[in-house]
Design goal:
With about 425 residues, the protein is an alpha/beta fold. The protein has 3 domains: about 110 residues, no CATH class; about 160 residues, 3-Layer(aba) Sandwich (Rossmann fold); about 130 residues, Arc Repressor Mutant, subunit A (Orthogonal Bundle). It is about 45% helix and about 15% strand. Strands 2, 3, 4, 7, 8 and 9 form a 6-stranded parallel β-sheet that branches. A two-stranded parallel ribbon has the order 1-10. Strand 5 and strand 6 form a beta hairpin. About 5% of the residues have low confidence.
Length: about 425
Amino acid sequence: MNEIILQELKGFKRYEEVFSIICRRFKNSISYFDIINWLGNFEPKEYEIALNILQYVNFFDDLDIIESLDSSFNAILNELTVASNIYIIGTGEHGKSGSAMIYFLHKTNSYSRKSGIKHKLNTISSPKNLIGEINNHNNNVVIMIDDFFGTGNSVCEFYFGLRNGQRKNSLIDFDSEFKKLSSYPEIKFLSVSAMNDAVKKIKDKIPNSEVYCNNIYGKAFQVPSSPFGYRKKMIPVRELCHSYGKKIYKRWPLGYKNSQSLVVFSYGAPNNSLPILWADNDWNPIFPRFYNHKMIKAREFRKDTAFSISYAKSMGIENINKLVSGEIDLGWKKFTFIKKTDFLLYGLLRLRRKNRSRFVICQILGIRSDEYDKLLHTAMQKGLIDRNECLTKIGSMLYYEVEKEIKRIKKSSKVETITPKMYVPNSFDGNT
Protein backbone atom coordinates (compact mmCIF):
# COMPACT_ATOMS: atom_id res chain seq x y z
CA MET A 1 0.00 0.00 0.00
CA ASN A 2 1.20 3.52 -0.80
CA GLU A 3 3.12 4.87 2.24
CA ILE A 4 1.31 8.23 2.14
CA ILE A 5 -2.10 6.52 2.12
CA LEU A 6 -0.99 4.24 4.96
CA GLN A 7 0.00 7.23 7.08
CA GLU A 8 -3.33 8.89 6.37
CA LEU A 9 -5.20 5.77 7.48
CA LYS A 10 -3.17 5.59 10.68
CA GLY A 11 -4.36 9.12 11.43
CA PHE A 12 -7.91 7.78 11.89
CA LYS A 13 -6.90 5.33 14.62
CA ARG A 14 -8.26 7.55 17.38
CA TYR A 15 -11.73 7.23 15.82
CA GLU A 16 -11.63 3.43 15.74
CA GLU A 17 -14.17 2.97 18.53
CA VAL A 18 -16.56 5.49 16.92
CA PHE A 19 -16.16 3.75 13.56
CA SER A 20 -17.05 0.45 15.19
CA ILE A 21 -20.19 1.90 16.79
CA ILE A 22 -21.29 3.49 13.51
CA CYS A 23 -20.76 0.28 11.51
CA ARG A 24 -22.83 -1.67 14.03
CA ARG A 25 -25.51 1.01 13.93
CA PHE A 26 -25.79 0.48 10.18
CA LYS A 27 -25.60 -3.30 10.62
CA ASN A 28 -22.26 -3.44 8.81
CA SER A 29 -23.81 -2.22 5.55
CA ILE A 30 -20.92 0.26 5.52
CA SER A 31 -17.28 -0.36 6.42
CA TYR A 32 -14.46 1.60 8.06
CA PHE A 33 -13.19 2.45 4.59
CA ASP A 34 -16.62 3.82 3.56
CA ILE A 35 -16.53 6.11 6.58
CA ILE A 36 -12.93 7.21 5.92
CA ASN A 37 -13.73 7.84 2.26
CA TRP A 38 -16.70 9.99 3.28
CA LEU A 39 -14.69 11.89 5.90
CA GLY A 40 -12.30 12.83 3.09
CA ASN A 41 -14.94 15.36 2.00
CA PHE A 42 -14.34 17.37 5.18
CA GLU A 43 -11.52 19.21 6.87
CA PRO A 44 -9.84 17.23 9.70
CA LYS A 45 -11.17 19.72 12.25
CA GLU A 46 -14.71 18.85 11.08
CA TYR A 47 -14.41 15.07 11.50
CA GLU A 48 -15.99 14.91 14.94
CA ILE A 49 -19.05 16.87 13.85
CA ALA A 50 -19.39 14.72 10.73
CA LEU A 51 -19.15 11.51 12.76
CA ASN A 52 -21.69 12.86 15.21
CA ILE A 53 -24.14 13.31 12.32
CA LEU A 54 -23.79 9.65 11.33
CA GLN A 55 -24.68 8.56 14.85
CA TYR A 56 -28.09 10.19 14.49
CA VAL A 57 -28.97 8.84 11.05
CA ASN A 58 -32.04 6.58 11.10
CA PHE A 59 -31.21 3.43 9.13
CA PHE A 60 -33.68 0.79 7.88
CA ASP A 61 -32.72 -2.59 6.44
CA ASP A 62 -35.06 -5.33 5.18
CA LEU A 63 -35.92 -6.63 8.65
CA ASP A 64 -36.61 -3.12 9.97
CA ILE A 65 -38.91 -2.48 7.00
CA ILE A 66 -40.85 -5.72 7.52
CA GLU A 67 -41.22 -5.13 11.27
CA SER A 68 -42.42 -1.57 10.76
CA LEU A 69 -44.94 -2.49 8.06
CA ASP A 70 -46.13 -5.45 10.11
CA SER A 71 -46.92 -3.25 13.11
CA SER A 72 -48.65 -0.53 11.09
CA PHE A 73 -50.64 -2.93 8.88
CA ASN A 74 -51.75 -4.83 11.97
CA ALA A 75 -52.99 -1.52 13.43
CA ILE A 76 -55.07 -0.91 10.30
CA LEU A 77 -56.63 -4.38 10.44
CA ASN A 78 -57.45 -4.03 14.14
CA GLU A 79 -59.33 -0.79 13.49
CA LEU A 80 -61.57 -2.36 10.84
CA THR A 81 -64.64 -3.67 12.68
CA VAL A 82 -66.32 -5.32 9.68
CA ALA A 83 -65.05 -7.51 6.84
CA SER A 84 -63.70 -5.15 4.19
CA ASN A 85 -62.46 -5.14 0.63
CA ILE A 86 -58.88 -3.93 1.05
CA TYR A 87 -57.04 -2.64 -2.02
CA ILE A 88 -53.28 -2.21 -1.65
CA ILE A 89 -51.30 -0.10 -4.14
CA GLY A 90 -47.83 1.43 -4.13
CA THR A 91 -47.64 5.19 -4.53
CA GLY A 92 -45.81 6.50 -7.59
CA GLU A 93 -44.79 4.54 -10.67
CA HIS A 94 -45.01 0.77 -10.75
CA GLY A 95 -41.61 -0.78 -10.02
CA LYS A 96 -40.49 2.06 -7.74
CA SER A 97 -40.22 2.04 -3.95
CA GLY A 98 -43.98 1.70 -3.44
CA SER A 99 -44.01 -1.58 -5.35
CA ALA A 100 -41.01 -2.80 -3.34
CA MET A 101 -42.90 -2.11 -0.10
CA ILE A 102 -45.76 -4.34 -1.27
CA TYR A 103 -43.24 -7.17 -1.54
CA PHE A 104 -42.14 -6.54 2.05
CA LEU A 105 -45.75 -6.25 3.23
CA HIS A 106 -46.44 -9.73 1.86
CA LYS A 107 -43.63 -10.99 4.14
CA THR A 108 -45.31 -9.72 7.32
CA ASN A 109 -47.20 -11.86 9.82
CA SER A 110 -50.15 -9.49 9.84
CA TYR A 111 -50.67 -9.83 6.08
CA SER A 112 -51.11 -13.60 6.37
CA ARG A 113 -52.73 -13.74 9.78
CA LYS A 114 -55.38 -16.42 10.19
CA SER A 115 -57.38 -15.08 13.15
CA GLY A 116 -59.83 -12.18 13.45
CA ILE A 117 -62.12 -10.69 10.84
CA LYS A 118 -61.65 -12.12 7.36
CA HIS A 119 -60.87 -9.29 4.96
CA LYS A 120 -60.43 -9.62 1.22
CA LEU A 121 -56.92 -8.41 0.35
CA ASN A 122 -56.29 -7.21 -3.20
CA THR A 123 -52.83 -6.18 -4.40
CA ILE A 124 -53.13 -3.66 -7.25
CA SER A 125 -50.34 -2.97 -9.75
CA SER A 126 -51.52 0.35 -11.23
CA PRO A 127 -53.96 3.23 -10.64
CA LYS A 128 -55.97 2.22 -13.70
CA ASN A 129 -56.38 -1.31 -12.36
CA LEU A 130 -57.53 0.03 -9.00
CA ILE A 131 -60.31 2.07 -10.57
CA GLY A 132 -61.27 -0.94 -12.67
CA GLU A 133 -61.51 -3.30 -9.69
CA ILE A 134 -62.95 -1.24 -6.86
CA ASN A 135 -66.69 -1.73 -6.52
CA ASN A 136 -69.67 0.11 -5.08
CA HIS A 137 -69.79 -1.83 -1.81
CA ASN A 138 -69.71 0.17 1.39
CA ASN A 139 -66.70 -1.44 3.03
CA ASN A 140 -63.90 -0.42 0.68
CA VAL A 141 -60.50 0.40 2.13
CA VAL A 142 -57.64 1.67 -0.04
CA ILE A 143 -54.10 1.37 1.34
CA MET A 144 -51.41 3.38 -0.44
CA ILE A 145 -47.92 2.33 0.57
CA ASP A 146 -44.36 3.66 0.24
CA ASP A 147 -41.08 3.53 2.13
CA PHE A 148 -40.92 7.22 3.05
CA PHE A 149 -43.18 10.27 3.11
CA GLY A 150 -40.84 13.27 2.98
CA THR A 151 -42.90 16.36 2.22
CA GLY A 152 -46.22 14.78 1.26
CA ASN A 153 -46.05 16.45 -2.17
CA SER A 154 -45.48 13.24 -4.14
CA VAL A 155 -48.30 11.46 -2.32
CA CYS A 156 -50.76 14.29 -2.99
CA GLU A 157 -49.75 14.54 -6.64
CA PHE A 158 -50.18 10.79 -7.02
CA TYR A 159 -53.59 10.89 -5.39
CA PHE A 160 -54.98 13.84 -7.35
CA GLY A 161 -53.37 12.93 -10.69
CA LEU A 162 -50.98 15.88 -10.77
CA ARG A 163 -47.49 16.40 -12.15
CA ASN A 164 -45.55 19.43 -10.92
CA GLY A 165 -48.80 20.86 -9.60
CA GLN A 166 -50.64 20.57 -12.92
CA ARG A 167 -53.54 18.20 -13.63
CA LYS A 168 -52.58 15.54 -16.20
CA ASN A 169 -55.35 13.69 -18.04
CA SER A 170 -53.05 10.69 -18.47
CA LEU A 171 -52.97 10.28 -14.69
CA ILE A 172 -55.77 8.97 -12.48
CA ASP A 173 -57.45 11.47 -10.16
CA PHE A 174 -58.45 9.13 -7.34
CA ASP A 175 -60.46 11.80 -5.56
CA SER A 176 -62.73 12.34 -8.58
CA GLU A 177 -63.05 8.61 -9.25
CA PHE A 178 -63.87 7.74 -5.63
CA LYS A 179 -66.57 10.41 -5.51
CA LYS A 180 -68.40 8.45 -8.23
CA LEU A 181 -68.80 5.49 -5.86
CA SER A 182 -71.81 5.07 -3.57
CA SER A 183 -69.54 5.80 -0.62
CA TYR A 184 -66.05 7.29 -0.47
CA PRO A 185 -63.59 4.57 0.61
CA GLU A 186 -61.41 4.82 3.68
CA ILE A 187 -57.92 5.90 2.58
CA LYS A 188 -54.96 4.58 4.56
CA PHE A 189 -51.42 5.71 3.85
CA LEU A 190 -48.79 3.25 5.05
CA SER A 191 -45.05 3.90 5.22
CA VAL A 192 -41.92 2.73 7.01
CA SER A 193 -40.91 6.27 7.98
CA ALA A 194 -42.15 9.81 7.47
CA MET A 195 -41.58 13.43 8.34
CA ASN A 196 -44.05 15.28 10.57
CA ASP A 197 -44.80 17.86 7.88
CA ALA A 198 -45.62 15.15 5.33
CA VAL A 199 -48.06 13.40 7.67
CA LYS A 200 -49.86 16.67 8.37
CA LYS A 201 -50.07 17.60 4.69
CA ILE A 202 -51.46 14.22 3.63
CA LYS A 203 -54.16 14.27 6.31
CA ASP A 204 -55.09 17.88 5.54
CA LYS A 205 -55.23 17.53 1.76
CA ILE A 206 -56.69 14.06 1.18
CA PRO A 207 -60.27 13.41 2.38
CA ASN A 208 -61.17 10.52 4.67
CA SER A 209 -57.49 9.65 5.09
CA GLU A 210 -55.16 8.53 7.85
CA VAL A 211 -51.42 7.89 7.96
CA TYR A 212 -49.96 4.78 9.58
CA CYS A 213 -46.25 4.95 10.32
CA ASN A 214 -44.17 3.85 13.30
CA ASN A 215 -41.21 6.12 12.60
CA ILE A 216 -42.17 9.77 12.29
CA TYR A 217 -39.48 12.43 12.59
CA GLY A 218 -39.14 16.17 12.87
CA LYS A 219 -36.57 18.27 11.03
CA ALA A 220 -32.98 17.64 12.08
CA PHE A 221 -32.32 21.26 13.04
CA GLN A 222 -35.70 22.24 14.39
CA VAL A 223 -35.57 23.34 18.02
CA PRO A 224 -36.36 22.17 20.62
CA SER A 225 -36.62 18.63 19.14
CA SER A 226 -33.29 18.48 17.26
CA PRO A 227 -31.36 15.25 17.96
CA PHE A 228 -28.20 17.38 18.04
CA GLY A 229 -29.26 19.05 21.27
CA TYR A 230 -30.03 22.60 22.31
CA ARG A 231 -29.44 25.51 19.95
CA LYS A 232 -25.84 26.24 20.91
CA LYS A 233 -24.78 22.63 20.19
CA MET A 234 -26.99 22.26 17.12
CA ILE A 235 -25.92 25.41 15.21
CA PRO A 236 -22.36 24.20 14.32
CA VAL A 237 -23.81 20.96 12.92
CA ARG A 238 -26.38 22.83 10.83
CA GLU A 239 -23.75 25.25 9.53
CA LEU A 240 -21.49 22.38 8.48
CA CYS A 241 -24.32 20.61 6.64
CA HIS A 242 -25.47 23.83 4.99
CA SER A 243 -22.02 25.02 3.91
CA TYR A 244 -21.27 21.75 2.09
CA GLY A 245 -24.86 21.18 1.08
CA LYS A 246 -25.07 24.40 -0.94
CA LYS A 247 -22.10 23.23 -3.01
CA ILE A 248 -23.46 19.80 -3.84
CA TYR A 249 -27.26 20.37 -3.89
CA LYS A 250 -27.48 24.12 -4.33
CA ARG A 251 -31.24 24.62 -4.32
CA TRP A 252 -31.90 22.56 -1.19
CA PRO A 253 -28.68 22.37 0.92
CA LEU A 254 -30.50 20.59 3.76
CA GLY A 255 -32.54 18.18 1.64
CA TYR A 256 -35.41 18.54 -0.83
CA LYS A 257 -37.84 21.29 0.20
CA ASN A 258 -35.68 21.84 3.28
CA SER A 259 -36.87 18.53 4.74
CA GLN A 260 -33.75 18.11 6.91
CA SER A 261 -34.30 14.36 7.09
CA LEU A 262 -31.87 11.84 8.59
CA VAL A 263 -33.52 8.75 7.07
CA VAL A 264 -31.66 6.23 4.90
CA PHE A 265 -32.45 2.72 3.70
CA SER A 266 -30.11 -0.16 2.97
CA TYR A 267 -30.75 0.42 -0.75
CA GLY A 268 -30.32 4.20 -0.77
CA ALA A 269 -31.36 7.54 0.70
CA PRO A 270 -34.31 9.79 -0.21
CA ASN A 271 -33.39 13.24 -1.51
CA ASN A 272 -35.20 14.67 1.54
CA SER A 273 -32.23 13.56 3.64
CA LEU A 274 -29.16 15.73 4.15
CA PRO A 275 -27.27 15.90 0.82
CA ILE A 276 -23.91 15.37 2.57
CA LEU A 277 -25.07 11.77 3.06
CA TRP A 278 -26.04 10.92 -0.52
CA ALA A 279 -24.98 13.54 -3.11
CA ASP A 280 -22.27 12.58 -5.61
CA ASN A 281 -21.62 15.91 -7.33
CA ASP A 282 -17.87 16.25 -6.61
CA TRP A 283 -18.62 14.45 -3.37
CA ASN A 284 -18.04 10.95 -2.00
CA PRO A 285 -21.42 9.83 -0.58
CA ILE A 286 -21.67 7.33 2.24
CA PHE A 287 -25.21 6.34 1.21
CA PRO A 288 -25.20 6.80 -2.59
CA ARG A 289 -28.54 7.63 -4.12
CA PHE A 290 -27.68 7.85 -7.79
CA TYR A 291 -27.37 5.00 -10.25
CA ASN A 292 -23.95 5.83 -11.71
CA HIS A 293 -22.17 5.81 -8.35
CA LYS A 294 -23.81 2.52 -7.38
CA MET A 295 -22.93 0.99 -10.75
CA ILE A 296 -19.23 1.76 -10.34
CA LYS A 297 -19.13 -0.02 -6.98
CA ALA A 298 -21.26 -2.88 -8.31
CA ARG A 299 -18.94 -3.32 -11.30
CA GLU A 300 -15.91 -3.48 -9.00
CA PHE A 301 -17.63 -6.09 -6.84
CA ARG A 302 -18.60 -8.26 -9.82
CA LYS A 303 -15.08 -8.08 -11.24
CA ASP A 304 -13.58 -9.10 -7.91
CA THR A 305 -16.12 -11.92 -7.53
CA ALA A 306 -15.35 -13.25 -11.01
CA PHE A 307 -11.63 -13.33 -10.19
CA SER A 308 -12.24 -15.04 -6.84
CA ILE A 309 -14.36 -17.91 -8.13
CA SER A 310 -12.16 -18.43 -11.21
CA TYR A 311 -9.01 -18.60 -9.13
CA ALA A 312 -10.69 -20.86 -6.55
CA LYS A 313 -11.60 -23.30 -9.34
CA SER A 314 -8.06 -23.31 -10.71
CA MET A 315 -6.71 -24.09 -7.22
CA GLY A 316 -9.22 -26.89 -6.64
CA ILE A 317 -10.47 -25.52 -3.32
CA GLU A 318 -12.56 -27.98 -1.30
CA ASN A 319 -16.32 -27.89 -2.09
CA ILE A 320 -15.73 -25.56 -5.06
CA ASN A 321 -17.74 -28.07 -7.11
CA LYS A 322 -20.82 -26.71 -5.36
CA LEU A 323 -20.23 -23.45 -7.22
CA VAL A 324 -19.07 -24.77 -10.59
CA SER A 325 -21.92 -26.21 -12.68
CA GLY A 326 -20.78 -25.81 -16.28
CA GLU A 327 -19.78 -29.05 -18.00
CA ILE A 328 -18.90 -30.10 -21.54
CA ASP A 329 -18.50 -33.79 -22.45
CA LEU A 330 -16.45 -34.35 -25.62
CA GLY A 331 -16.69 -38.11 -25.29
CA TRP A 332 -13.00 -38.52 -24.72
CA LYS A 333 -12.71 -35.75 -22.12
CA LYS A 334 -14.96 -33.72 -19.82
CA PHE A 335 -14.43 -30.05 -19.10
CA THR A 336 -15.93 -28.04 -16.25
CA PHE A 337 -16.37 -24.31 -16.46
CA ILE A 338 -17.93 -21.45 -14.55
CA LYS A 339 -21.34 -20.27 -15.70
CA LYS A 340 -22.86 -16.90 -14.96
CA THR A 341 -25.21 -18.55 -12.45
CA ASP A 342 -22.13 -19.83 -10.56
CA PHE A 343 -20.65 -16.35 -10.46
CA LEU A 344 -23.98 -14.99 -9.18
CA LEU A 345 -24.16 -17.74 -6.58
CA TYR A 346 -20.79 -16.85 -5.08
CA GLY A 347 -21.72 -13.17 -5.26
CA LEU A 348 -24.81 -14.05 -3.21
CA LEU A 349 -22.67 -15.82 -0.61
CA ARG A 350 -20.32 -12.85 -0.33
CA LEU A 351 -23.13 -10.35 0.06
CA ARG A 352 -25.24 -12.39 2.47
CA ARG A 353 -22.07 -12.91 4.53
CA LYS A 354 -22.01 -9.11 4.84
CA ASN A 355 -25.74 -9.12 5.65
CA ARG A 356 -26.66 -7.11 2.56
CA SER A 357 -30.38 -6.85 1.87
CA ARG A 358 -32.27 -8.43 -1.04
CA PHE A 359 -32.61 -5.15 -2.92
CA VAL A 360 -28.97 -4.19 -2.46
CA ILE A 361 -27.93 -7.63 -3.72
CA CYS A 362 -30.20 -7.27 -6.75
CA GLN A 363 -28.63 -3.87 -7.50
CA ILE A 364 -25.06 -5.13 -7.19
CA LEU A 365 -25.52 -8.39 -9.10
CA GLY A 366 -27.77 -6.79 -11.72
CA ILE A 367 -30.65 -9.24 -11.27
CA ARG A 368 -34.40 -8.96 -10.76
CA SER A 369 -36.25 -9.95 -7.60
CA ASP A 370 -37.61 -13.16 -9.18
CA GLU A 371 -34.07 -14.08 -10.29
CA TYR A 372 -32.91 -13.52 -6.72
CA ASP A 373 -35.53 -16.02 -5.52
CA LYS A 374 -34.29 -18.64 -8.01
CA LEU A 375 -30.68 -17.99 -7.04
CA LEU A 376 -31.56 -18.32 -3.35
CA HIS A 377 -33.40 -21.59 -4.06
CA THR A 378 -30.30 -22.96 -5.82
CA ALA A 379 -28.09 -21.94 -2.89
CA MET A 380 -30.46 -23.73 -0.49
CA GLN A 381 -30.50 -26.88 -2.63
CA LYS A 382 -26.69 -26.93 -2.59
CA GLY A 383 -26.69 -26.54 1.20
CA LEU A 384 -24.90 -23.18 1.08
CA ILE A 385 -27.66 -20.99 2.56
CA ASP A 386 -30.42 -21.83 5.04
CA ARG A 387 -34.07 -20.78 5.18
CA ASN A 388 -33.15 -17.64 7.12
CA GLU A 389 -30.93 -16.63 4.18
CA CYS A 390 -27.80 -17.10 6.33
CA LEU A 391 -24.73 -19.03 5.25
CA THR A 392 -24.71 -22.66 6.39
CA LYS A 393 -21.60 -24.29 7.83
CA ILE A 394 -20.67 -25.53 4.35
CA GLY A 395 -21.35 -22.11 2.82
CA SER A 396 -19.25 -20.38 5.46
CA MET A 397 -16.37 -22.84 5.07
CA LEU A 398 -16.39 -22.40 1.30
CA TYR A 399 -16.48 -18.62 1.64
CA TYR A 400 -13.56 -18.58 4.09
CA GLU A 401 -11.47 -20.99 2.01
CA VAL A 402 -11.89 -18.89 -1.14
CA GLU A 403 -11.27 -15.58 0.64
CA LYS A 404 -8.24 -16.98 2.47
CA GLU A 405 -6.71 -18.15 -0.81
CA ILE A 406 -7.42 -14.83 -2.52
CA LYS A 407 -5.79 -12.90 0.31
CA ARG A 408 -2.76 -15.14 0.05
CA ILE A 409 -2.36 -14.70 -3.68
CA LYS A 410 -2.93 -10.95 -3.53
CA LYS A 411 0.09 -10.72 -1.26
CA SER A 412 2.15 -12.48 -3.87
CA SER A 413 3.78 -10.71 -6.78
CA LYS A 414 2.42 -13.49 -8.99
CA VAL A 415 -1.06 -11.98 -8.83
CA GLU A 416 -0.27 -9.82 -11.84
CA THR A 417 0.42 -12.87 -14.01
CA ILE A 418 -2.67 -14.84 -13.10
CA THR A 419 -5.50 -14.36 -15.55
CA PRO A 420 -8.17 -16.98 -14.79
CA LYS A 421 -10.88 -17.25 -17.42
CA MET A 422 -14.59 -17.52 -16.85
CA TYR A 423 -17.33 -18.47 -19.27
CA VAL A 424 -20.23 -16.00 -18.95
CA PRO A 425 -23.31 -16.69 -21.11
CA ASN A 426 -25.40 -13.91 -22.55
CA SER A 427 -28.49 -14.87 -20.57
CA PHE A 428 -29.56 -16.00 -17.10
CA ASP A 429 -32.39 -18.51 -16.73
CA GLY A 430 -33.42 -17.90 -20.34
CA ASN A 431 -33.28 -14.10 -20.02
CA THR A 432 -30.68 -11.88 -21.69
